[in-house]
Amino acid sequence: MALEVMARAKGPIPLDVAFRAEAGEVLALVGPSGSGKTTVLRSIAGLWQPEAARIAVNGTTWLDTGARVNLPAHRRRLGVVFQAYALFPHMSAVGNVMAAMDRADEAEARRLLHLVNLHGLETRRPAQLSGGQQQRVALARALARRPQALLLDEPFSAVDRATRERLQAEVIALRAHLDMPVVLVTHDMAEAQLLADRMVVIEAGRMVAGGPTAAVMSDPDALRAMGIRELAAMLPARITERDADGLTRLEGPTGSLFLPGLGDPPGTRVRIRIPAQDVILSRQRPEGLSAQNVVPGRVLRSVTGTGPGVLVHIDVAGHEIVARITRRAALQMDLAPGEAVHAILKSMSVARGQVIRAPDRDR
Amino acid sequence: MDWTALGLSLRLAGWTVVFLLPVAVIAGRMLAYRRFRAKGLVEALVMLPLVLPPTVFGFYLLVAFGGNSPVGDLWQRLFGDQLVFSFQGLVLASVIFNLPFAIQPAQRGFEAVPLEVREAAATCGMSPARSLWRVELPLAWPGVMTAMVLTFAHTLGEFGIVLMVGGSIPGETKTIAIAIYDRVQAFDMQGAASMSAVLVGISLVTIALTYWLSARVGKRLG
Q: By C-alpha distance, which of B93, B102, B101 is closest to B163?
């Protein structure tokens, strides 16, 4: 299964995007608010028709303005989780899930609610559920149709941070059960990086970058619209213990890392998002620093942009992290490819929102 | 107490509701969701019976339904009798006159169904008809029900139109409102009072029923 999307429009909402999401893959559509990413999602769902567009799933064309093919929304086999969930207020949780089935099957609806960790609340109406619980019902409802594509429109924006982190971890765990392409619309780069395999960056309706998440997140041109501060890499780690002073000790690729209390049990595998601007480089192993996390590695390459900064890509035991330092510092340190460096990570700046539990994946 | 007149009024109100229910649902839904150029004009036309004096409106309907008019002529050819001064003509006049009472509240009801919820229905695979039945009508129900109750109560008490289009033929077009007027003209204050009391009773019951039903719907959605 793969979802192919091409959409162009002059107005009222200008659009020019083309991308492909593979089966079982999460593709994040990111961009500032008003950039048109939700419009792209609505075009896929059949809730909006751009002037020129082609949308196909598994070779079945849903929309082709050239060939005058336009399947109405209800005939496109997809699941959508709306930003405000849009549950049917007069139906129970299980009723909402059944409403999306071709033939109502209560046992299957309950199984889906179980899958999204909603236990014992099946007969409650949406108004009696919290935001996070409604989000779970919306996800179960989207899956109930056995969709050929799953569309998530800012699905975590309406819940508090703790709930958001839990839901994100659940979506990652849920991915093992999903074999359709997933398109996630978000303006939160950290969220996109934590959840997506591939990213498409949209700015004023135009696609400015697309590719594997790690590549897009280390490409300054791709991130211009979102801000260069968003540039970041991911490092896998495993929680080993919780120290008495509130820090959590993790086993990273090259030794121990310390992060502010994560609260997860030892053994939990996580991926840590490391913003490039929070990395300091040193040729010698630094002594007497307040920073706790020093990661040894080798310079892969340095990328000089138009500004005063340089992006230094560093290989850390097979994983790549990126440091954003000044051009002057890069020259003084003579950071040629292959040279050994120490990357210093400011542990307190790795906030909880930058860590995701990754039970079955450490890409 | 003129039971024939009361029965006739109830039948007239019942038929008006039966004919106006689908009209209210279809037109109310269209006016609530669609954006089209003549929408303001259509809404104004629907509201017209609300501001026109019933006798004026009745006069035009009388002319329009008469044997010399295309409508009256067609009716005569199809059914063999005249449209004016008949129960059928009364129902037709009542349906037209009650358009604002039926469409307006239904439109408000459909407007209360969020766009996102309707889109969710479509993305859940519901066809427009299924979406109407399973999602929109249950949510717009308070509005549609108010429309029907208002239409029923309003038809029971209508006087001017009935007199203009139907006259006062016992058993055919003499409704309870006309009967009350007749009684007063005949100085039968006792008879007028008892019939008026019955109408007051029916009105109170309908309003109580509306409130009770919408409270139940509110609880269901809350």
A: B93
Q: Nearest CA to A129 among A97, A173, A175, A153?
A: A97
Range B34-59 average pLDDT:
91
Residues A180, A150: contact at Cβ < 8 Å?
A: yes
Q: What is the pLDDT of residue B135?
A: 96
Query: Out of B123, B127, B131, whose CB is closest to A80?
Result: B123
Residues of B in contact with A45 (CB under 8 A): 119, 123
Which of these, B123, B144, B74, B46, lies nearest to A87 by C-alpha position? B123
Q: Nearest CB to A78: which of B123, B131, B221?
A: B123
DSSP assignment string, B3-23: HHHHHHHHHHHHHHHHHHHHH
| Gyration radius from chain A CA atoms | 22
Which long-range contacts does B200-207 make (Cβ < 8 Å, 24+ apart)? B202/B153, B202/B156, B203/B153, B203/B156, B203/B157, B206/B149, B206/B152, B206/B153, B207/B149, B207/B153
- pLDDT tens, position by position, B81-118: 888 899 999 999 999 999 999 999 999 999 999 999 99
Of the candidates B22, B37, B165, B185, the residue with the CA atom closest to the CA atom of residue B90: B165
Query: For tokens 């307006």, what's the residue?
Result: B104
Distance of CA B209 to CAs A7, A71, A341, B203, Å? 52, 44, 80, 10
Among B117, B122, B125, select the one facing A102 at the smallest CB separation: B125
Return the amino acid letter for B87. F
pLDDT tens per residue, range B169-204: 888 899 999 999 999 999 999 999 999 999 999 889
Within 8 A of B134 by CB-CB distance, chain A residues are: 88, 99
CB A136 within 8 A of CB A113: yes
Set of chain A residues whose Cβ sits within 8 Å of the Cβ of B114 = 86
Whether this model's ipTM surpasses 0.85 comes out as no
CB within 8 Å: B128 and A78: no
For A284, the token pair is 């010698």
Q: Which of A86, A100, A127 sits opposite B119 (nearest CB)?
A: A86
Q: What residues in A contact B128, CB-CB < 8 Å?
A: 74
Residue A351 pLDDT > 70, yes or no?
no
Residue B129, min C-alpha distance to chain A (Å) = 11
104-143 in chain B: CB under 8 A from chain A? 114, 116-117, 119-128, 131, 134-135, 138-139
**Is the pLDDT score of A160 beyond 50?**
yes
